[in-house]
Write a structure and sequence with these properties.
about 575 residues, alpha+beta, four-stranded antiparallel sheet
Length: about 575
């Protein structure tokens, strides 16, 4: 009897703790999850090799999660020609080829890369990433014991796996791979590889997108709405075959002087992606290719403002909405708030802090309060893991929450579950230092522009405050767009899209992004010439140089200055 009373007392105390957590936590900075992590952290956690049965359990869990929570499967099939579910058997075949946990991690990364979502991916393995996540349902993960220890355990495993691979194959001064970055509608290389800013014309005698459609890469799959073709952010090829199964590939490239050359290289999914993993976890091989790599690369905490007095035009380069000093940026933009022509460049801007542009960019340009309401829709389905915490988060972050039937949604979905409709009003804080007057504002976008950078583009477009130039963004701005899940066997954490976020045309933001008002393809010949001139001392981000080499800037500049 005493033992029963003791158990009941423990249960009663636990219930009281959770009630306190639910009632008071939204207003405090102390989290029960943080306490659990501090108490249970185990820096000796070791990852054991998974069996094929355990791998399949995790693989099916991820696929079921993606297909049951990703509302845009019909849009994906319409644009990509497939859904993740359509490729389940292909993933099973690749699972049979996995030799260890590292290979399995690569396979999971591949699946998430094919969701078309900039927020989908494996959570970087270390303690801070595992315990500091900021997603819709991150709280429930932080209530799981030894989160940080598991993250560090996987980090140690993958670092050792990648290091052994790197040392075994690639102890040389020459990079073992050719790296091509998708820029505009082309794949371009760097001079560091001895290819002198060449771009790919053909792969095996056909267009690059045909090769991409039939081969696997772990870089994000996207759609080029100008060329109407699929593309990956990067393509990696081996310089030399790694095994008998390595596929020989003939790549035709064009150099800046117009000459063509055919390069023989090799495609080998596992070997190439192990190299990519080495880039992430051992840091010995760099991070691939930045199109601005070289003498004037922009770091994420910098911004550039150029002013042309003759035409009263100001150019503002915003590479990020996360690391920049917001107050300093606001003061700098405010100095040019009365300019007749303003060009804001958010190409290659992956987003950052929610609210950044509302608080530091918009108020520097306008005096009227920001008025914009975002709507998002979240399915209450099998993988909605934390209704308890979800209510707490949504009630604190949103103006309203209502429950809808699937038939009441603004688009049709393959779901019989109910959905939450979340309403959020965007508001700017601080002093408005800008002006209201008739002026021309242009915003430059590309396929990397995403998250709250896409939110920025979407607001200025739908509010008729700017004309958008370039290509479709990568999307997923305007509201909550992703959540995280823990795989049952490996304990790895991954994120993927979860909410219905619609763009200004009523289509999936994850697949379509925000479309520009004026489509402007990148002139790859001008791009290549600009890099050669950059190496000879040209400033890439002066209005003078962009007026010569940047086709998107040229179109926007001519339109707003000569209008």
């Amino acid at each position: 009897m005493n033992k029963i009373r003791s158990v009941l007392r423990v249960i009663f105390v636990v219930i009281i703790i959770f009630l306190i957590q639910f009632i008071f936590l939204p207003y405090r900075n102390i989290y029960l999850g943080d306490l659990i992590q501090r108490v249970t952290y185990d820096d000796g956690y070791e990852v054991s090799e998974l069996s094929k049965e355990q791998m399949k359990t995790d693989l099916d869990y991820m696929l079921d999660c993606i297909t049951s929570t990703t509302y845009y499967s019909d849009d994906m099939r319409e644009v990509f020609g497939y859904t993740v579910e359509d490729k389940r058997e292909h993933y099973y075949d690749l699972l049979d080829e996995c030799e260890n946990n590292g290979d399995f991690y690569i396979l999971l990364s591949l699946i998430l890369s094919e969701c078309g979502s900039p927020h989908a991916g494996m959570t970087y393995c270390n303690a801070s990433s595992y315990t500091g996540a900021n997603t819709f349902n991150a709280d429930i993960l932080n209530l799981m014991p030894n989160n940080g220890g598991i993250g560090d355990g996987w980090y140690n495993y993958l670092s050792e796996y990648a290091s052994e691979y790197y040392k075994r194959y690639y102890e040389s001064d020459l990079s073992p791979v050719y790296v091509f970055c998708h820029y505009g509608s082309d794949y371009v290389s760097t001079i560091q590889q001895g290819l002198d800013y060449c771009c790919i014309i053909e792969i095996n005698g056909s267009s690059p997108d045909e090769f991409i459609n039939s081969h696997d890469f772990t870089f994000l799959m996207q759609y080029d709405f100008i060329e109407n073709s699929l593309f990956r952010n990067y393509l990696y090829f081996l310089r030399n075959p790694a095994s008998e199964s390595s596929e020989e590939v003939e790549i035709t490239v064009k150099y800046t002087d117009g000459t063509l050359e055919t390069i023989t290289c090799y495609y080998d999914f596992w070997e190439t992606e192990r190299y990519v993993l080495a880039e992430q976890y051992i840091g010995e091989v760099g991070y691939g290719f930045d199109v601005n790599e070289g003498t004037e690369a922009i770091s994420e905490d910098e911004y550039i403002i150029e002013y042309e007095e003759e035409t009263d035009t100001v150019y503002i380069k915003l590479p990020s909405f996360e690391y920049i000093d917001g107050e300093t940026l606001k003061e700098s933009i405010s100095e040019y708030a009365d300019s007749d022509n303003i060009i804001m460049d958010v190409r290659e801007n992956p987003g950052g802090y929610v609210g950044f542009w509302e608080n530091y960019v918009y108020p520097a340009l306008y005096v009227a309060p920001l008025e914009n309401t975002c709507n998002s829709y979240i399915e209450i389905g099998d993988f909605y893991m934390n209704i308890f915490y979800g209510f707490r988060v949504t009630c604190s972050d949103y103006d309203s929450i209502e429950t809808l039937k699937a038939s009441q949604l603004p688009i049709s979905v393959n779901s019989s579950n109910k959905w939450y409709h979340l309403t959020q009003t965007q508001e700017a804080i601080g002093e408005y230092t800008g002006l209201n007057h008739d002026r021309d504002i242009a915003i430059l976008t590309d396929s990397i522009t995403c998250s709250c950078a896409d939110d920025f583009v979407n607001y200025f477009k739908t509010s008729n405050l700017a004309t958008i130039y370039g290509t479709n963004t990568c999307g997923e701005g305007t509201s909550i767009t992703f959540a995280q899940w823990r795989l049952p066997e490996s304990k790895l954490i991954f994120s993927c899209g979860y909410g219905i976020i619609l763009n200004d045309e009523g289509k999936s933001s994850s697949i379509y992004g925000t479309s520009p008002d004026v489509y402007v393809p990148v002139d790859i010949d001008l791009f290549q010439q600009s890099r050669v001139s950059r190496d000879n001392g040209l400033s890439l981000y002066s209005i003078e140089s962009m007026s010569q080499y940047d086709s998107v800037f040229i179109k926007a500049y001519n339109d707003i200055v000569n209008e």
